[in-house]
Amino acid sequence: MRTYLPKEEEIERKWYLIDAQGQTLGRLATFIARLLIGKHKPIYAPNVDVGDRVIVINAEKIKVTGKKLDKKSYHWHTGYLGGLKSKSLRKMLEEEPEKVLYLAVKGMLPKNRLRDKRLRGLRIYRGSEHPHAAQNPQPINLAGGI
């Protein structure tokens, strides 16, 4: 028996629209990561990008549980001496909620060469408007799944 590997011309990519309003950050990020990887498809292969494209709207209306708004912080370094910066989750959600969801999804994808390619299929927007109407995205209700 031979191992099946999907070919590029066999991969059919769909566009999904997810409304993040009232969704918990971690649960939403795992669901999005699963769609980007393509684990919901029967032709899934770990070494081939078979994932779909995801559009997320209302990113500023994401929920977090517990005391994470004040206790969780994001750190980065500017590259200069003494350049370690940090922001709390509350401040990040106010200033750039798209980045919060992006970093959560990025952390849930496998750390390999396909991660950047898969992340290019993720589009995150603050409001309920998005410029991808031509792709005819299929709305997903997270309670019901795909």
Oligomer: single chain
CATH top level assignment of the domain at 14-64 and 93-140: Alpha Beta
- Kindly report the CATH topology of the domain at 14-64 and 93-140: Ribosomal Protein L13p, Chain: A
**Largest sheet composition:** 4 strands, parallel
Shape: globular
Major beta sheet, strand line-up: 5-2-1-6
Strand content: 15-25%
Q: What does the average pLDDT come to?
A: 94
Q: Helical proportion?
A: 25-40%
Distance between the termini: 31 Å
What structural class is derived from the secondary structure elements? alpha/beta
Helices and strands, in order, run as EHEHEEHHHEE
Low-confidence stretches: none
> Mind telling me which CATH architecture of the domain at 14-64 and 93-140 this is?
Alpha-Beta Complex
The tally of beta strands, per DSSP, is 6
Work out the radius of gyration.
17 Å
Count every helix, treating DSSP H or I runs of 4 or more residues as helices.
Answer: 5
CATH superfamily of the domain at 14-64 and 93-140: Ribosomal protein L13
Describe the structure.
This protein has a domain at 14-64 and 93-140: Ribosomal protein L13 (Ribosomal Protein L13p, Chain: A, Alpha-Beta Complex). It is built from five helices and six strands. It has helices spanning 25-37, 68-71, 89-95, 97-108, 115-119; strands at residues 15-19, 53-57, 73-77, 84-88, 122-124, 138-140. Strand 1, helix 1 (25-37) and strand 2 (53-57) form a beta-alpha-beta unit. It is globular and about 55 Å long.
